[in-house]
Amino acid sequence: xxxxxxxxxxxxxxxxxxxxxxxxxxxxxxxxxxxxxxxxxxxxxxxxxxxxxxxxxxxxxxxxxxxxxxxxxxxxxxxxxxxxxxxxxxxxxxxxxxxx
Length: 100
What we know:
Helices cover 34% and strands 18% of the residues. It contains 3 helices and 4 strands.
C-alpha cells in the first residue's frame, strides 16, 4: 500500500511519520517548497531502523511521486497569522495556485 501526502509541514510530516511507524504503508511526501519534503522524508527514513519499520519514504516537489498511491492526504495550506480565523484562510491569496 502507498499513501501520498501533499503538504510536508508539521501536519503532513507527522501524518507521514505515524503511517510509516505503524507499518501501514509506504509514503510519498510532496510539497511545493523546494527541498522541504525531501528533507523530511530523509529524516523519517533515517529514523526507520531505530523505530523498527521498513517502509519506503520518499519526498519531493514532483506530483509524479503520488503515482500508484492508494490514498492521497492533503494537508497543504497556509499557516495562520495572529488573529486569523480558519475562514480567513479561504480568502488568502496563494503564490502557486496549481500543481506543477
